[in-house]
Amino acid sequence: MVVTLGKTKEWLRVESNDEDALIERFILLAENIVEDILRFPLSEFETVPEPVNHAIYFGVSKFFESRNELDVGELTDTIKKILFGYRRESW
Q1: What is the rounded distance in angstroms from the CA atom of residue 21 to the CA atom of residue 4?
Q2: Of 2, 62, 67, 91, which has fewest CB within 10 angstroms of its CB?
């Protein structure tokens, strides 16, 4: 994982450990979406830029807060806007 569980919980303002497994799954899901949007794996970054981290945190927060009513189109559109400067033309 590019972002840590601890930092993600700070972003979400979650203090309990009750949902750690769920949050970790959301982190992996958000990282997969970010990689799909970037069109390259996150491992290619020597140091992950803050906008990329923020895109992951944003994705996790949307999954966490809107898990029953998530608008995936809105989520991916926002992440595309955050990552526009890093996105490749194709895989």
Answers
A1: 12
A2: 91
pTM of the model: 0.92
CA angle 37/39/41 to nearest 5° reads 105
Residue 55 makes CB contacts below 8 A (sequence gap 6+) with: 30, 34, 37, 79, 82, 83
Considering only CA atoms, which of 46, 37, 47, 12 is closest in space to residue 27? 12
Walking along the chain (91 residues) 10 residues at a time, the average pLDDT comes out as: 95 95 97 97 96 97 90 93 92 76
